[in-house]
Amino acid sequence: MANESVSGFCPECNRISELQVRSRVTATAPRQLFDQLDPGEDGLHSAQYSIAFCPNCGGVFLHVAATSEPSDLPYEAMLFPISNRRDVPGLPEPVRRTFLGAQSCFDTGNFEACVIMCRKCLEAVCAFLGANDGSLAARLRTLRDSGRIEAKLYEWADELRLVANDAAHDLEIRISKDDAVDSVDFVEAILLYVFALDRRFRDFRARRMEKGPEGSSNKAMQPDAPSARR
Predict the structure, then answer these.
(1) What topology does CATH give the domain 84-210?
(2) 54-79 pLDDT per residue, tens
(3) Residue 206 in contact with residue 218, Cβ under 8 Å?
(4) What are the start and end residues of each CATH 1.20.120.330 domain in the chain?
């Protein structure tokens, strides 16, 4: 066990470290991992929980990992310390990967790379939604004009594009921590709207359509069913 390790970001050391595993146990996978499942994956095998320590500062970590069914894809999460970022469920893999990359860059203090990864995440969103022609600015306008994103989200996304352009091309500019954290927050809001909240609203509306007044089902009651009112 002394030679086993997991990779994780240590907030005390402000860097990615190889955390030394001291103990492991197998149990049911947590909800955090199920929320990450890609389309086509039915569930997760039993998860392996690891208690690990940072070799530099001695910080304690709780890591979980499992593989999916049926494809045996790896999924993992750090359960402690708790990240200050929440997962956005239902993200396509290219979008999820670039969003996690932006968060990782921010966590390690690489603010220029953070805003560039935010831009890359927007490009992944455009590609997934079928906006593939022209510059990123043109693709974002296409999403706005087609109603895939609202005007306010377009305004946020376009401003993020400009910040990332500055970070990538202006050698004199320095991206502040405030600009980086705002960039990640705005990208998260866009992803929540496009992939999570929109799907939840469609599910909510579908449930409402299946029910009649006061939430009772539209389906005819069976002859021997008790009355809903007394």
Answers:
(1) Four Helix Bundle (Hemerythrin (Met), subunit A) (1.20.120)
(2) 999 999 999 999 999 999 999 888 89
(3) no
(4) 84-210
